[in-house]
């Protein structure tokens, strides 16, 4: 018969403030096969863990139930504890009394206590049926894939490469650099963004351990932690990267002009161009949607072909596919800027003198469309009144409820730069919800802005109106002065929030990485595992996990790289044994499970059974992630999940439904 120990955690007052843990412990003592039942203030503490280990040895316990917080928090902690005492780590059941009881029934302590008793009883019923399992050991590929060439991807790649790992850095744009490359200055120090970024871009391109794949996208991912197989398609530039010297002679003769994406459409470039003034690699690219020769006929145009002295133009170039084996993956695909045209009351895209904060960055930049001169895009005049409008698309239930975290500081930076460049005669307003200056040196930066005679209006305009001649005006209620103000600006800058990348839905499915309610990639645990996804071996860095500024992005990128280094430093790694198993006697070979598996971990093969060929499903253990989809789909109940069997769950249900002892 099993010998079970039950331990109820107070979790300070998180549990004990609602649940009567002493009554729950007394109830657990009376359950069949329970040898020991105890409660302690913090079971996860060194003292609490020592208590469990001593009891396992003293009472010869072979099953442990710990009623505490979410298993996401401390299940691995307690598995190590029981293993150190000589017990198989999978003969452990975690009962969640915090999230499932005390936090959701805080106003009903008596009912919460009764529910806690039921959950402990269910945990005891399940732990009796648990089986000892052993982790699998697999060899490790020492290569790493980094997806996204912004500052997060660059920093992670450099850290990994310096540690001796080969890194494949994949960027869908023609150049690395990401959003940071578009910025003029960085807050709160007002350093030149390009001066900080471009040396790292060059270092990444020149590092012998980094293979740079720009204008490329990941198309398929299979395998498992330590052994991922990745397919990457490199789209044609129609320019030979080995021959192009970046002289830009081709761009000077191209007759086709198109909106410049790097300058947010505020200026024009050509159908053949170099992506940005500090592109890495500095190689021209032809836009097939606008090139006359590619779009219509090879005889229509060929001016770039004639102008290129290096003979680098190649209109016959085709997509290239690469297949790589990597041990780990870092996703650093960044975020996007909210499209303010979804808020027609702000007149974005309707009036040229209403711009987004990223467009204003390009206006401020010396390499931008106006060479750094602050002018009204509508008439080219120097504005006399500027208004910055905060929280556009963020902290708004209609669009995104989260704070973009960088909007306030970006506006302060831009307002300070306007004051410095245009002098005291320009009137500057900042319309805000709250000014959030949370980082190092940020509050001092806020005070600096206030000292520069910038007017802060505690309110947001509900509607921006335009006069027939194109001038703007709006009313805004200032909560600070209790007055309704009418403002007539020459230029309005919208602090558009950071929102999830439009590619995240596709990337989430491709890499089997979950997303949180706000649409960003979901970390394994917000406090204890903020750099890891729920898929082993795949890590996240930068604003694809949530809005963040450059310092936090760089810190997270280096942290993710450190996690990968720790993972791949070993020659072999251990995999969880929580996989699906198939009873071939019950398997009908229907193949329903095969297409359902998101990890491609099931294959159907023909076998000889009693002299007859029959199709039977087989689980590729190394690839199985234990999601359980195949179990729920199998019509003959031939598939079971180790550690999560029907019998174990039914035992819990029966325990809950039976009369409490």
Low-confidence segments = none
Average of pLDDT? 94
Give me the side-by-side strand order of the main sheet.
10-7-6-18-29
CATH architecture of the largest domain: 3-Layer(bba) Sandwich
Question: What is the level 1 CATH name of the largest domain?
Answer: Alpha Beta
Largest sheet: 5 strands, parallel
Word description of this protein:
- The structure is a single chain.
- By secondary structure, the chain is α/β, with parallel strands linked by helices.
- It folds into five domains: 4-133, 3-Layer(aba) Sandwich (Rossmann fold); 143-235 and 319-334 and 501-568, FAD/NAD(P)-binding domain; 249-307, no CATH class; 336-499, FAD/NAD(P)-binding domain (3-Layer(bba) Sandwich); 580-642, Alpha-Beta Plaits (2-Layer Sandwich).
- 28% of the residues lie in helices and 24% in strands.
- The chain contains 18 helices and 34 strands.
- The strands form twelve sheets. A five-stranded parallel beta sheet has the order 10-7-6-18-29. Strands 20-27-21-22-23 form a five-stranded parallel beta sheet.
- β3, α3 and β4 form a beta-alpha-beta unit.
- α2 packs across α3, α11 (357-364) runs parallel beside α12 (407-422) and α12 (407-422) packs across α13 (442-450).
- The longest helix is centred in the first third of the chain and has 19 residues, at 109-127.
- The two termini are 19 Å apart.
- The mean pLDDT is 94.
């Amino acid at each position: 018969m099993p010998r079970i120990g039950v331990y109820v955690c107070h979790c300070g007052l998180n549990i004990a403030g609602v649940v009567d843990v002493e009554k729950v412990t007394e109830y657990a003592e009376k359950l069949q096969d329970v040898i020991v039942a105890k409660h302690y203030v913090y079971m996860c503490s060194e003292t609490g863990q020592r208590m469990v280990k001593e009891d396992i040895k003293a009472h010869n316990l072979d099953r442990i139930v710990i009623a505490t917080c979410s298993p996401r928090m401390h299940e691995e902690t307690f598995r190590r504890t029981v293993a150190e005492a000589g017990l198989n780590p999978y003969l452990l059941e975690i009962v969640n009394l915090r999230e499932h009881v005390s936090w959701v029934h805080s106003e009903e302590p008596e009912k919460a206590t009764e529910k806690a008793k039921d959950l402990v009883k269910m945990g005891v019923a399940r732990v009796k049926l648990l089986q000892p399992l052993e982790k699998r050991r697999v060899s490790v590929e020492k290569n790493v894939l980094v997806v996204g060439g912004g500052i997060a991807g660059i920093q992670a790649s450099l850290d990994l490469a310096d540690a001796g790992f080969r890194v494949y850095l994949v960027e869908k744009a023609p150049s690395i650099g990401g959003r940071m490359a578009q910025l003029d200055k960085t807050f709160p120090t007002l350093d030149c963004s390009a001066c900080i970024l471009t040396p790292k871009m060059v270092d990444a391109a020149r590092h012998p351990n980094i293979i740079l794949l720009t204008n490329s996208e990941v198309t398929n991912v299979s395998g498992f932690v330590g052994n991922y197989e990745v397919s990457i398609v490199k789209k044609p530039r129609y320019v030979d990267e080995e021959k192009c010297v970046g002289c830009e002679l081709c761009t000077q003769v191209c007759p086709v002009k198109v909106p410049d994406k790097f300058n947010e459409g505020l200026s024009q470039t050509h159908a053949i161009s170099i992506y940005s003034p500090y592109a890495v690699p500095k190689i021209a690219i032809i836009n097939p949607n606008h090139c006359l020769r590619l779009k219509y006929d090879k005889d229509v145009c060929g001016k770039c072909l004639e102008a290129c002295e290096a003979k680098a133009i190649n209109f016959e170039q085709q997509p290239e596919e690469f297949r790589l084996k990597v041990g780990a993956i870092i996703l650093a695909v960044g975020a996007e800027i909210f499209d303010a045209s979804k808020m027609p009351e702000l007149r974005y895209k309707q009036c040229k003198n209403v711009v987004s904060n990223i467009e204003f960055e390009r206006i401020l930049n010396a390499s931008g469309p106006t060479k750094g001169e602050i002018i009204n895009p509508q008439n080219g005049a120097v504005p006399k009144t500027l208004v910055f409008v905060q929280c556009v698309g963020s902290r708004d239930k209609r669009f995104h409820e989260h704070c973009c975290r960088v909007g306030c500081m970006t506006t302060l930076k831009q307002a300070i730069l306007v004051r410095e460049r245009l002098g005291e005669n320009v009137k500057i307003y900042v319309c805000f919800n709250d000014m959030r200056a949370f980082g190092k040196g940020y509050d001092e930066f806020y005070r600096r802005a206030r000292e520069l005679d910038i007017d802060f209006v505690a309110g947001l305009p509900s509607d921006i109106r335009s006069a027939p001649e194109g001038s703007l005006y709006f009313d805004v209620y200032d909560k600070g002065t209790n007055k309704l103000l009418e403002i007539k600006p020459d230029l309005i800058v919208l602090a558009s929030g950071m929102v999830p990348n439009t590619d995240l839905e596709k990337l989430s499915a491709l890499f089997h990485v979950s997303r949180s309610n706000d649409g960003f990639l979901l970390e394994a645990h917000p406090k204890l595992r903020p750099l890891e996804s729920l898929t082993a071996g795949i890590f996240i860095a930068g604003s694809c996990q949530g809005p963040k500024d450059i310092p936090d992005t760089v810190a997270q990128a280096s942290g993710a790289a450190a996690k990968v280094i720790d993972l791949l430093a070993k020659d072999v790694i251990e995999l969880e044994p929580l996989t699906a198993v198939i009873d071939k006697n019950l398997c009908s070979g229907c193949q329903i499970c095969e297409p359902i598996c998101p990890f491609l971990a099931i294959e159907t093969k023909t076998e000889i059974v009693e002299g007859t060929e029959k199709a039977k499903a087989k689980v590729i253990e190394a690839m199985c992630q234990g999601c359980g989809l195949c179990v729920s789909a199998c019509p003959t109940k031939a598939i079971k999940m180790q550690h999560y069997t029907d019998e174990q769950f039914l035992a819990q249900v029966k325990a809950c439904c039976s009369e409490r002892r």
